[in-house]
Amino acid sequence: MKYPITVYGDPVLRKRAEKITPESEGLQEIIENMWETMYYADGVGLAAPQAGMSIRMFVIDASSGADDEPELKDFKKVFINPEIIELSGEEWIFNEGCLSLPEIREDVTRPDVVRIKYFDENFVEHNEVYKGFAGRVIQHEYDHLEGILFTDHLSALRKRLLKSKLNDIAHGKVQPHYKIKIPVK
Question: Mapped to the 3 state alphabet, what secondary structure does 136-183 carry?
Answer without folding.
Answer: HHHHHHHHHHCCCCHHHHCCHHHHHHHHHHHHHHHCCCCCCCCCEECC
